Amino acid sequence: MKRLALVLIATTFAGISAAGGAGTFTDKRDGKTYRTVKMPDGKIWMAENLNHKTGNSWCYNDDNSNCNTYGRLYDWNTARKGCPSGWHLPTVQEWDGLVGAAGGNTMAGKKLKSTSGWGNSASYNGTDAYGFSALPGGSRFTDSSFDNAGDGGSWWTATAYGSDIAGRLMNDFNGSVLEYYGGVGNGFSVRCVRD
């Protein structure tokens, strides 16, 4: 009995429940709690977009209610430092591992997207097969304009290719996860992966 209690304490402290990797993590910087999930790639991912106000980060359309729904959008330099201690911005290889384990580029989006909130047709939503719950948080551009919330989501990786940064894009009209490249000043969503 004592050993079981210690195991439960350890797994709760780590932010992961004893049942299959679903749990929560509380960010000590601001007290926000995020759902977490063990994905088929074997890694623990946040099951929500990061929503820590810091540096160059924005709510879609500068509307705070959008941060409550979608999390914040970050420029790349802020995104690289944005994840809390014990977590990091995933590399392109980590995103590739996640997408591959979830069925590949043409199928993974359907499994990773939330079951509501995508576009104006129920057929655009995902199955959320693993609890990743990707939402279409849109993007912010360097001219301070916003685009695509409700229809698409873009997420940074930690991997640079020359002056462009690799990201991932999901749209409402298909089940794909596409490679997407953007300049460092654009605002994309962030998913953190446990170290």
Approximate shape: globular
Could you say how many structural domains there are in total?
1
Say how many strands there are.
12
Largest sheet: 3 strands, antiparallel
Radius of gyration from CA coordinates: 16 Å
Structural class of the secondary elements?
alpha+beta
Describe the structure.
This protein is α+β, with helices and mostly antiparallel strands and about 200 residues long. It has one domain (about 20-195). Helix content is about 20%, strand content about 25%. It has five helices and twelve strands. It has helices at about 1-15, 65-70, 75-80, 90-100, 110; strands at about 25, 35-40, 45, 55-60, 75, 85-90, 140, 145, 150-160, 165-170, 180-185, 195. The strands form five sheets. It has a three-stranded antiparallel beta sheet, with no helix packed on it. It has a three-stranded antiparallel beta sheet with strand order 9-10-11, covered by helices on one side. It has a two-stranded antiparallel ribbon with strand order 4-5. A hairpin with a 5-residue loop joins strand 2 (about 35-40) and strand 3.
Q: What's this entry about, in short?
A:
The protein is α+β, with helices and mostly antiparallel strands. The protein has 5 helices and 12 strands.
Features:
single chain; 195 residues; alpha+beta; 3-stranded antiparallel β-sheet; 12 strands; globular; disordered N terminus
Give the SSE map.
Blueprint lengths: L1 H12 L9 E4 L6 E6 L5 E3 L10 E2 L5 H7 L2 E2 L1 H7 L4 E2 L3 H10 L6 H5 L26 E2 L5 E2 L4 E10 L2 E8 L6 E6 L9 E2 L1
Antiparallel strand pairs: 1-2, 2-3, 4-5, 6-12, 7-8, 9-10, 10-11
